[in-house]
## 1
Amino acid sequence: MRIAVTGTHGQVVQALGERSASSGCTIAAIGRPEIDLARPETLAGVFDRFAPDVIVSAAAYTAVNHAEAEPDLAMVVNCAGAGAVAAEAARLGVPVIHLSTDYVYAGTGNRPWREDDPTDPLGVYGVTKLAGERAVAAITPDHVILRTAWIYSPFGTNFVKTMLRLAVDRPQVRVVADQVGNPTSALDIADGIIAIARNLVADRSDALRGVFHMAGRDEASWADFAEGIFEQSAARGGPVASVARITTDEFPTPAPRPANSRLDCGKLAELHGVILPPWRVSLGPVIDRLVASGAFA
Ligand SMILES: NC(=O)C1=CN([C@@H]2O[C@H](COP(=O)(O)OP(=O)(O)OC[C@H]3O[C@@H](n4cnc5c(N)ncnc54)[C@H](OP(=O)(O)O)[C@@H]3O)[C@@H](O)[C@H]2O)C=CC1
Ligand SMILES: Cc1cn([C@H]2C[C@H](O)[C@@H](COP(=O)(O)OP(=O)(O)O[C@H]3O[C@@H](C)C(=O)[C@@H](O)[C@H]3O)O2)c(=O)[nH]c1=O
Ligand SMILES: [Mg+2]
């Protein structure tokens, strides 16, 4: 199976590159400068030569705080850019798997969100990602929109690397304990995407298409996640800090985040047979690699 994916240095694209070898897939990562989602016209024809069976739309404007200051750029990249990727998939007659986010939800309530629950993003990033979902769905019915969350990995920028870096200089980090979600390894996301891609290629049925949640099993607050990170780092001789559990009010940020970000992933399990491992299990190998390489500094 041939999978084209947008981006080069992103967490999900790098994880797909790693996981493709063992899964018998050929991956082409197509990113800047060849394509620029801020100039959607640069997408025209870029996948033709590779002739993919599936296109994965993983590149996005992901700087949640910065998006508040440049909403127009975030909207072009996350909406028009996503639409341009989907249009190429439609033109080639192949499915598109488009990555989206828990930040499309307002974070109210206290049960995990289901795919048909009302969306109501709190910040610019979430607004633009929701607009991107709608653009993709309007362009081609042959899509899977995968809402995932709280991605960590040995690659790119993420909360695990931030915590390890902070712990090098500080005895204590202050972390919000009143935002709850599902930490998700990019490596598990890659495995899930490959399984979904195979299903889409093998089976044309509508039931496999649409919006799905895909996140790590078990929930955590960001403070719980930080504690888990330091527990596993300590076990491997890596950096450690104590975690001061604070409230969102005590950690002001330009973009508001949802308090309840938990995703119910039952639909994906039922229809695609994909269940991601618990985040504590998947965190181990990621911390192993980061501590061994020191690549969090
Ligand atoms: N990170 C997270 O916690 C979560 C992410 N998501 C979604 O999952 C997807 C993958 O996220 P993740 O792997 O973490 O992303 P990263 O933040 O690690 O990387 C962003 C990727 O997007 C590319 N990109 C950004 N702007 C442009 C542009 N103008 N033109 C072309 N490419 C661009 C980057 O390019 P380059 O390779 O040149 O650096 C990079 O490959 C995204 O759609 C994101 O919205 C969903 C939930 C959680
Ligand atoms: C660094 C840091 C963050 N925080 C808080 C701020 C915020 O509420 C929460 C997470 O902060 P971050 O900026 O690392 O994470 P953030 O950029 O909000 O992560 C989000 O990224 C986008 C792309 C997504 O799609 C989401 O699923 C989610 O993963 O932790 C602390 O309390 N203490 C700290 O030292
Ligand atoms: Mg961030």
## 2
Amino acid sequence: MFLNVNSEIGKLKRVLLHRPGRELERITPQYLEELLFDDIPWLKRMRAEHDAFALTMANRGCEIYYYENLLQEVLEKGDLKEKFIDDVLKGTKLVNPCLEQAIREYLISLPPQKVVKVAIEGLHKEDVPDLKWEYRLVDYVKSEYPFYINPMPNLYFTRDPGAVIGNGLVINKMKTPARNRETMFLYYIYKYHPLFNQSNIPLYYNYTDPYSIEGGDILVLNERTVAIGCSERTSAWGIETLSERLFQQSKIEKVLAIQIPFTRAYMHLDTVFTMLNYDQFTIYPGVKNNIKVYLLTKGVNSPKITPINSLEEGLKKVLKLPSVELIESGGGTEITAAREQWNDSTNTLAIGPGVVITYDRNEYTNETLRKRGIEVIEIEGSELVRGRGGPRCMSMPLFRENL
Ligand SMILES: NC(=O)NCCC[C@H](N)C(=O)O
């Protein structure tokens, strides 16, 4: 089996990453919001930080896969380059078909490796100053927009476009257009890369589905249970649709829907809540009293929905534990907790039971976790954090050892 994820905390053996590239250098203050960024990272240091993150996992016995390499391998084999180019172009804002055709021809002239680079880094008008096409009114009116193809600065948050549940895959429908191409990439890898397409992997959700759902909201609690955040990004219908399919097609019997406030600072469940150990979790105290929990189980025509009194009660129930420990991030002060949450203190990545990777900047939270017996491996993230995501957001586990 190439994919196997039956928990949040089993020893991490395979992970999908993306090493930040030139796409990050294409963010300018004007387009921050559209590209879902709050600041502009310094790429050189960001890459060094990301390499150190990858090395931390590799040193603990985890194989690292990169989006860019897998996609290149897909395009190098088979006859997929033109189809891929068409799919990239479908998601752009190009409205003049003559311009689209000129760009299509330009991309077709490139080797597969370069096509993948352009698909990730975007196509800036300055990249192709000699491009010629028949100008229409729209080209004059929209002339100030700098990109023919937008860059994908969020690709290094590999958690969000997909999730492995058991031996199957979920390819998400992203909430915003800024991240749609990421899921298309994952679909190509799933459908055409030999590591994926030779083992009959079930696909429980696809990016062509209508309701948004993002991977930062999906937590595999155990072999039979998934927690899904209902958030700014993940819709109630998305949760219900995925739950129904999981009940029918996988070993999953319970979905714990966890509703968090719909705001930018906590765009996904994993920005405020992650699993650390068999019975230990970390939570941002600022949302603790603002969470609603529902248990979804198999129903007659649609999932049965049971409201649950508290997160703690829900976790105990689905994990069949007498007690669970919810460790508050931020070391006990409101201001520290809020500051560190903004810098992803709660976005821990477990690489084994009770062993997590976190950013070193979140000193109070890290200290608290250590006091509760967690092994905390710190990485630097001064540049990585500027995209609003931490170690969990930056990783898509493909294979974890079963507990
Ligand atoms: N799981 C996560 O919380 N991912 C972080 C995504 C950050 C990215 N800039 C976004 O807004 O989508």
